[in-house]
Amino acid sequence: MIALTVKALIPVVLLIALGYALKRSMITAEGFWSEAERLSYHVLLPALFLHSLATADTDDLPVRALAGTLVASTVAVAVLVIAFRPMMRLKHDGFTSVFQGSVRFNNYIGVTIAAGLYGTQGVATAAVCNAAIVPTVNVLCVLVFARFGSARLRLTGIVKQLVTNPLILACAGGILLQALDLRLPPGIEPALQALGAASMPLGLLCIGAALRFGTARSWAAPILTSSSVKFALMPAATFLAAQMVGLGSQALIIAVLFQALPTASSSYIMARQLGGDAPLMAGITATQTLLGIAAVPLVLALVSA
């Protein structure tokens, strides 16, 4: 289990480091990185979410119990994080980064570990996890950005953000195709798959490019807060919710796995596009990725026991 986690996380760490090096040596123009972030947010990430949700194989899985466990635990923890916001003494845009670091997850790592643990059944269970958490997290994050981001929005602005957000639209499209049992056209599916596969490396390179270690001292408290929620509170809440609905051992382990994953590259992309603290978000993402090498196996070992 530890070897699987390290194997899944090492490429993530290396791509972040490569992005940091490229920004300071070869590709120094800010314009390139800002346009790469726009490409990820508007094209690559939506393609990833649409393809993965539309093509998920959910036969013979406890879909309702698993989805209910994940949605309930995510919403409960999100409410707690918002409730304790005044105690964090953060600027509003800084809080959006802590919030994303608390609830978002790197589904690439999750699918890799789930496949290593349980093979094709693990991949199918991971697909249900994505279908449940991805839309939930994106709606919650858009609402938090609308309230605490640098561009404050009224009710009409919040509704507009929700109905036009490319990540939420992609999730809705993928779930609709799954619910109607419709397949993507033969030519469209491989194109979406290829675009989605490009989202992870490009997003991680952008995170590395955005790292600013000169302000790292101010990151300590936000990183500690978001990482405590991500690696302790979130998996604990998921475990309790799973126990309440009687979720089976394999589904329970994968559910807790996904809720204990370090935050994803999409967190940084969303922070840049919706008015969050992008450098802090990059720092949280990079730090949680490193911490995850130890934290994720520990959480899985505790749940398995």
Written account of the structure:
The protein is an all-alpha fold and 305 residues long. The protein has a single domain (2-304), classed as Na+/H+ antiporter like fold (Up-down Bundle), CATH 1.20.1530.20. Helix content is 82%, strand content 0%. It contains 13 helices and no strands. It has helices at residues 2-25, 30-54, 63-83, 85-88, 92-103, 107-148, 155-164, 166-179, 188-210, 220-245, 249-259, 265-274, 278-304. The model has no long low-confidence stretch (mean pLDDT 87). This is AEC family transporter. It comes from Streptomyces inhibens. Pfam families: Mem_trans. Its main location: membrane.
Question: Topology of this protein?
Answer:
Layout: H1 2-25, H2 30-54, H3 63-83, H4 85-88, H5 92-103, H6 107-148, H7 155-164, H8 166-179, H9 188-210, H10 220-245, H11 249-259, H12 265-274, H13 278-304
InterPro entries: Mem_transp_PIN-like, Na+/solute_symporter_sf
Membrane topology: Multi-pass membrane protein
Keywords: Cell membrane, Membrane, Transmembrane, Transmembrane helix, Transport
